[in-house]
Specification:
about 190 residues; 8-stranded mixed sheet; about 45% helix; alpha+beta
């Protein structure tokens, strides 16, 4: 009978350890990472999963932003109460296919970093616990055509803090976005409806 008690106690303890570890991982307290590659390697889907899981804050530094699913994910996050801030490279003000217009139309005005020759970042910091970075631009071309890499880092507060501080530095010298290119109304309407 003592073996039954020992086995039951051991299994109960093991179950509690497993459940506790899962909860800590979900809260971003246990270090983890995911490495993805494109084309068609699931990068955009992985980013969307992290955006959809955000509860308090999403900070975005982006060189190019033409991936409408990601733009819509950020807009949805804002609508559900997540604080979303976006800093884009100045090229987005003149780039015909930039999602800048979508952000502005949905009351999510990005800032423009024109302080550098190119603001070439591709970073998201989510809920002060997750960093998404790599060569992967937030574009359809990065997902479907380019050879890119994406790294999702969790449970490393020192890395998160460094990226978050870098975001704040770029934000401090950025200015409100201005549309400087003519936008084809049909194209904008088609993007909005999708």
């Amino acid at each position: 009978m003592i073996w039954v008690h020992l086995a039951t106690g051991f299994m109960g303890a093991w179950t509690l350890w497993f459940l506790g570890r899962g909860a800590l991982r979900k809260l971003g307290r246990i270090p983890s990472h995911a490495v993805l590659f494109s084309p068609k390697g699931g990068c955009q889907e992985a980013i969307l999963k992290e955006i959809n899981a955000a509860r308090s804050e999403i900070l975005v530094l982006a060189y190019s932003f033409t991936a409408e699913p990601l733009a819509n994910g950020l807009i949805s996050a804002k609508k559900r109460g997540v604080h979303v801030e976006i800093v884009l490279d100045k090229s987005n003000e003149v780039e015909r296919y930039s999602d800048l217009h979508i952000f502005l139309h949905n009351s999510l005005p990005p800032l423009i970093d024109s302080h550098h020759a190119i603001a070439h970042n591709k970073v998201m910091v989510i809920d002060k616990k997750t960093v998404i970075t790599g060569s992967f631009n937030f574009t359809n071309q990065a997902e479907h055509e380019n050879g890119e890499n994406l790294l999702i880092i969790k449970g490393h507060p020192e890395i998160v803090q460094a990226y978050r501080q870098n975001f704040l530095t770029h934000k401090s010298h950025s200015k409100p976005a201005e549309i400087k290119a003519q936008v084809d109304a049909k194209q904008f309407g088609a993007k909005k409806a999708a």
